[in-house]
Amino acid sequence: MTADSRRLQPFKVLTIGGSDSGGAAGIQADLKTFTALGVYGMSAISVVTAQNSLAVHRADFLSPDGLEAQIRAVLDDYGVDAVKSGFIGRVDLIEAAATALANLQVPLVVDPVLVNHRGQPMFGPEVSAAYRRHLFPLATVITPNWREGLLLAKEAGEDEAAIRTAARKLTYSHPFPLLFTGYPQGDEIVDFFVSEQGIMPLVGPRIATNNTHGSGDTLSAAIAVFLARGTALPDAITQARAFTARAIAAGAAWQLGGGHGPLAQWLA
């Protein structure tokens, strides 16, 4: 491949996660984010859901072999510049994804989807344990929302002190950067970036809207995009947070469905 032809190749990002029939979250949110940010998006689907802005009505999980085959098909032919994982939901599927990604030489963003928008755990403790054992050691960064961070660390309480304690627990057992996202403080939203340098609060405005379904997916997908381009992790997080805020603001005024509506990544 010549230097001239190499410049024509798009950056390629793979997302591993669930399909949302409503188009707001999961694979659909990730692919919209990839397109909006100008990279080529690919997908490996773990579960097909029947959902809308109000509820998830059904979830049909694929087989572990089926998920692993999707990932390997992409890696063996197209190749990737970064990978992002989202909703996986079962121990055997987490193990299959980790097996397929074991020799990955590019950034991996792990967004462990464990808590629903009501703050309720979606799975038993075995799923959290599988993330910690199989996928976290492969990750460049993990991006749980703040409730998922507390769950992963088995930390009680819901204040900032509890979040900081949970962050220290997780980084003590797994020495990787992590980002606890979406902690509300009045008119602001705080994300906590945790690295070897300590815990850094990242503060942004809290946008007054119910249209936030898929915001965590969008953030982690955007981080993967900027990492694929070679951006250093702190700057990738900064740019991804700004993009996600623009996507929320762009969709804040519309009303799609009767519940938590989607973002507008393509307008960000």
Quickly describe the structure.
The chain contains nine helices and nine strands. It has helices at 3-6, 26-36, 64-77, 91-100, 125-135, 146-153, 160-173, 215-228, 233-250; strands at 12-20, 40-51, 56-61, 82-85, 108-110, 141-142, 178-185, 188-195, 198-205.
Walk me through this protein's architecture.
This protein has helices at 3-6, 26-36, 64-77, 91-100, 125-135, 146-153, 160-173, 215-228, 233-250, and strands at 12-20, 40-51, 56-61, 82-85, 108-110, 141-142, 178-185, 188-195, 198-205. The chain has one domain (11-254, 261-267): UDP-N-acetylmuramoyl-L-alanine:D-glutamate ligase. The strands form two sheets. A six-stranded mixed sheet has the order 3-2-1-4-5-6. Strands 7-8-9 form a three-stranded antiparallel sheet. The protein is of the alpha/beta class. Helix 2 links the parallel strand 1 (12-20) and strand 2 (40-51). The two termini are 34 Å apart.
Write the layout of secondary structure elements.
Layout: H1 3-6, E1 12-20, H2 26-36, E2 40-51, E3 56-61, H3 64-77, E4 82-85, H4 91-100, E5 108-110, H5 125-135, E6 141-142, H6 146-153, H7 160-173, E7 178-185, E8 188-195, E9 198-205, H8 215-228, H9 233-250
Parallel strand pairs: 1-2, 1-4, 4-5, 5-6
Antiparallel strand pairs: 2-3, 7-8, 8-9
